[in-house]
Amino acid sequence: MRAFLFSNLADDEAQKNSDMWKPEERGKAMSTYTMGPMLGPVIGPIAGAFIAQYSTWRWVFYSTSIAAAVVQALGFVWLRESHPPTILRRRRDRLARETGNRDLYTGEKEETLGRTLLRAVQRPVRMFATQPIVACIAVYMAYLFGTLYLMFATFPDIWTKVYGQSKGVGGLNYLSIAIGCFVGVFLQLKMVDRVYGALKSRNGGVGRPEFRMPSLAIGSVVLTVGLFWYGWSIGRAHWIMPDIGALLCSVGVICCLQGMQMYIVDCYQTYAASAMAACAVLRSLAGFGFPLFAPYLYEELGYGWGTSILAFVSIAIGWVAPVIFWVWGPRLRALSKFASG
Q: Which Gene Ontology molecular-function terms are recorded (predicted)?
């Protein structure tokens, strides 16, 4: 039930971003949004531990439900439709009622609700299967989420078993990831739109989705450094060192996600939600699957080499993908019927 209720929320925001902001303005909005999905798994364990300690486990769910209800109520009050064709269709219906003219039309093909829902389900699958941009972004995004959730799953053992901290104190180490998220968002707020604007000016005032690639390139390098730092410092250095590594990892993940999400939005403006939905499927599977093999990975290879494997994957994908998209991105978009420009 939870999956059906909340699976659409994360990707719907990409479409809203495309609808409401110009390309040179989207970076700040997407940076702020990206922080939410990252901070949730960080703040949740900290808050849940204290709620369970001073109350009962049921209040962990009660408090979550109350918070969700409050946010939902605020959304009903302040959120408005942003999809241009839908707004135009509603305006046509209103004018038809007011004037009695039933011949008004919007140029959009009329479809039944069933047909619309079927197309909405089919399009993400088609885009994942036919769009190399979506497929590549989906794979790397899945790796990022899988790596992050692998860290979440192994965090408790590191602080309680390796460093001998209590569960309460050990849970506070999640703050390193939270701080990294804030640092990453701050850097993106200061950098992403400024870099896009500078590259656009150098390109004769014409923007390109590929101008989002610097965020992905920088984020991949920072993530790789953070993974090596994190893995090889566990049990070999003071407990603050793995925290610094985790902080660098979260900074890198934020920058990577920012670059990829903005690239998807700029490439598939009208179909941004469908493209992000295609990415979300693989991303969610990785977030589920990576923590399952984490114990076996670290048991066989240790924290150093186990995390190094993840860093090597980051090099293989994250360091190469920005170059590929920068060079061949325009050709791939030209071959696509979904891409814009």
A: transmembrane transporter activity
Is residue 145 exposed (0-12), middle (13-18) or buried (19+ Cβ within 10 Å)? buried
**Crossing angle between the packed helical segments 240-267 and 272-318, to the nearest 10 degrees:** 130
How far apart, in Å, are the Cα atoms of 194 and each of 25, 198, 215?
10, 6, 11
Q: Determine what percent of the chain falls in helix, strand and coil, rounding each to the nearest 5.
A: 85, 0, 15
Q: Quick check: 276 and 257 in contact, CB under 8 A?
A: no
What is the radius of gyration, based on Cα positions, of the chain? 22
Residues 6+ apart with CB under 8 A from 9: none
CA distance readout (Å), 247 to 42, 179, 184, 227, 286 = 12, 7, 9, 10, 21
Rounded to an integer, what distance in angstroms lies between the CA atom of residue 14 and that of residue 30? 8
> Which phi and psi (to 5°) does residue 167 adopt?
-65, -40
Instruction: Report in angstroms the alpha-carbon separations of 259 from 35, 41, 107, 161, 265.
Output: 13, 21, 34, 36, 10
Q: For residues 318 and 257, what is the distance between their CA atoms, to the nearest angstrom?
A: 11
Element (H, E) at 134: helix 132-157
Of 86, 51, 83, 90, whose CA–CA distance to 67 is shortest?
51
Q: Which of residues 99 and 18 earns the better pLDDT score?
A: 99
Which tens digit of pLDDT belongs to each residue from 119-157?
778 888 888 888 889 999 999 999 998 998 898 888 888
- For tokens 């994250």, name the residue: 318
Interhelix angle 9-20/240-267, rounded to 10 degrees, is: 60
Q: Which residue has the tokens 């150098």?
A: 202
List the one residue out of 140, 181, 195 whose CA is nearest residue 27.
195
CA distance 215 to 8: 25
Helix (H, G, I), strand (E, B) or coil at 239: coil
Phi, psi dihedral angles at 56 (to 5 degrees)? -120, 165
